[in-house]
Amino acid sequence: MSGTGTFFYGSVIQPLIRYHYLSPPIPIRPLCCISPLITSIHSNDAVSPQNGTLRFQTEHQQHSEEPLPVPSLSAAEENKATTKLRKKKEDDVVSDNRFKLRNGREVFEEKAYLVGVERKNDVQDFGIEESLSELSQLVDTAGLLVVGSTYQKLTSPNPRTYIGSGKVSEIKSAIHALGVETVIFDDELSAGQLRNLEKIFGGDVRVCDRTALILDIFNQRAATHEASLQVSLAQMEYQLPRLTKMWTHLERQAGGKVKGMGEKQIEVDKRILRNQIGILKKELESVRKHRKQYRNRRFSVPVAVVSLVGYTNAGKSTLLNQLTGADVLAEDKLFATLDPTTRRVQMKNGKEFLLTDTVGFIQKLPTTLVAAFRATLEEISESSLLVHVVDISHPLAEQQINAVDKVLSELDVSSIPKLIVWNKVDKVGDPQKLRLEAEKRDDVVCISALSGNGLQEFCNAVQDKLKDSMVWVEALVPFENGDLLSTIHQVGMVEKTEYTEQGTYIKAHVPLRFARMLTPMRQLCVSQP
Ligand SMILES: Nc1nc2c(ncn2[C@@H]2O[C@H](COP(=O)(O)OP(=O)(O)OP(=O)(O)O)[C@@H](O)[C@H]2O)c(=O)[nH]1
Ligand SMILES: [Mg+2]
Q: Where is this region: Disordered (predicted)?
């Protein structure tokens, strides 16, 4: 990572640094305005230098930090009093149940209010209530507390405030009554809409949209360098069109005398951001080159690659863990996995394949995110088989399947054979009925990744599907190509082997790559009497 890259990348993830970088005072809203980490910057919170723990102070806490008027005491009494005071402060923290421990950090759980819009003329896969319930899950994953939600049926969104003025007033009363800190819209809002709504709601209430929320979750969860770079890129691209008019405060401060000052600053800001995007893209390119080399090395090991795809929380990582003993984080949160992980699966019959776990999909997946993660998702396009993992116990399983198919079609992978896995059968009311239903279809397998039920059937189905994607060859492999022969036994399905004076005569299904390698030997075979 170059020095500039490190600085600039950090500056985006940590708005605090960003403020310094762009020289104060800049009223730029934080990129991901809702993560507890970022909240700290706006509420003058303290960061403990020892462990980096963010401590979010409520008003009540700030008061409790004030020195109490204590009469003069002896050293022992003073000690006792200090201990008591500390104990009181600790109790205060514990008793406020909005302080949560997340990933070893004590964070203040902000109150969030959700808003959705149902388009009257649009037929959506996900109904508005279902979409809001998913948004609520996302909010929970991001670490906020949902205290209420509402939606409005509209023919078309209001260009100023997205929702109608009556609804805005209704929300304003609700959020003030509930003490809400953040209002989250289920659809992407323009810079103007975000700004207008914040102005109307007043106080410290912040407004953000589903895209910012997803970007924030990705930001919190990005564990590798590449994932962090990709998320930063997506965040900046989300931010770029939203910089508009954020400098108008300068004109206001100058009493409108310095007209155009804000406009100039927007341009400066946009240029800085564009430069940063450019640097970031270059850095990503170099990281990707490195990964590609690694991937090519992996491909030189001749094993079929099978990719797990599916809606977020469907159970992909649980399946990978069960089959390979991997230790990928699997939890009941959305977007647990961001980086691809590949492990070797050894089947009982000695055959093996590589299984890759990838980032999950979701409806209304931000396009900036798909674009930023395209390289990671390229792994999918290089696989021999896609395994679409479905949480069949989910009430919206059908809609989730459609959302995944939509992303897959954007990734242009329709030519790759697909196997559908109905996961979490242990959670459905009538698993037997479901199994009968699956049997009627030739590309569906029922499993419970959690209990391990159906994994043998899954492996067999993978093997059958891989066979379908292979090429039938008859070839005469010279004895000096013994390595190739053993590889074919490993990755292909050998039906017949016969030793002749010229070499080994085989009939087998082999992956396309091997069929190509075997081409000269196939001719040799054809020329045999
Ligand atoms: N009951 C039941 N729960 C399951 C099963 N498979 C996975 N789960 C649970 O579902 C939750 C999500 O599982 P993950 O494996 O993290 O899902 P994922 O598809 O990798 O999710 P993302 O990484 O977010 O895309 C976890 O709490 C798992 O324990 C299953 O077969 N039965
Ligand atoms: Mg996962």
A: 57-89
Alpha carbon distance 13, 216 (integer Å): 10
Residue 16 placed within a domain? no
Enclosing H/E stretch for 7? helix 3-13
Q: Which of 195, 214, 233 represents a domain boundary (last residue)? A: 214
Could you tell me if residue 68 is inside a domain?
no
Check whether residue 199 and residue 255 sit in a common domain: no
Distance 317 CA to ligand 1 centre (A): 7
Q: What residue numbers bound the domain in which 435 lies?
A: 302-468
Same domain for 278 and 354, yes or no, is no
Model-wide pTM > 0.95: no
Residues with CB under 6 A from ligand 1: 310, 312-318, 330-332, 334-337, 360, 423-424, 426-427, 448-450
What SS3 state is found at 12? helix
**For a pocket test of ligand 1, which of 138, 313, 321, 322 has the largest count of ligand atoms closer than 8 A to its C-beta?**
313
Say if residue 242 is in the same domain as residue 124.
no
CA of 326 to the centre of ligand 1 (A): 14
Same domain, 257 and 318: no
Could you tell me the distance, in angstroms and rounded to a whole number, from the CA of residue 7 to the centre of ligand 2?
Answer: 30
How many domains does one find in the chain? 4
> Which residue has the CA at smallest separation from atom 11 of ligand 1?
332
**Same domain, residue pair 424 and 328:** yes
Residue 239 falls inside a structural domain? yes
Sort strands 493-499 and 504-510 into parallel, antiparallel or unpaired. Answer: antiparallel
Q: What single string gives the DSSP state of each residue in 55-70?
A: EPPPHHHHHHHSPP--
> What residue has token string 């037929």?
123
Give the span between the Cα atoms of 353 and 346, in whole angstroms: 7
Q: Are residue 335 and residue 430 in the same domain, yes or no? A: yes
Domain co-membership, 206 together with 225: no
Residue among 325, 137, 155, 273 at smallest CA distance from 213 = 137
Per-residue pLDDT of the chain (529 residues; tens, 9 = 90+): 333 222 233 333 333 222 222 222 223 333 333 333 222 222 333 323 222 222 222 223 333 333 333 334 444 544 554 444 444 444 444 445 667 766 666 677 889 999 999 988 777 778 899 999 999 999 998 889 999 999 999 999 999 999 999 999 999 999 999 999 999 999 999 989 999 999 999 878 999 999 999 998 888 888 788 888 888 999 998 888 887 545 444 444 445 444 555 567 777 888 888 999 999 999 988 888 887 776 666 555 567 889 999 999 999 999 999 999 888 888 888 888 888 888 989 887 777 888 999 889 999 887 777 877 776 677 788 788 999 999 999 999 999 999 999 888 888 888 889 999 999 999 999 999 999 999 998 889 999 999 999 999 999 999 889 888 788 889 888 888 888 888 888 778 888 889 988 889 999 888 777 788 888 777 666 655 4
CATH number of the domain encompassing residue 476: 3.30.70
Q: Are residues 278 and 399 in the same domain?
A: no
**Residue 148 forms part of a structural domain:** yes
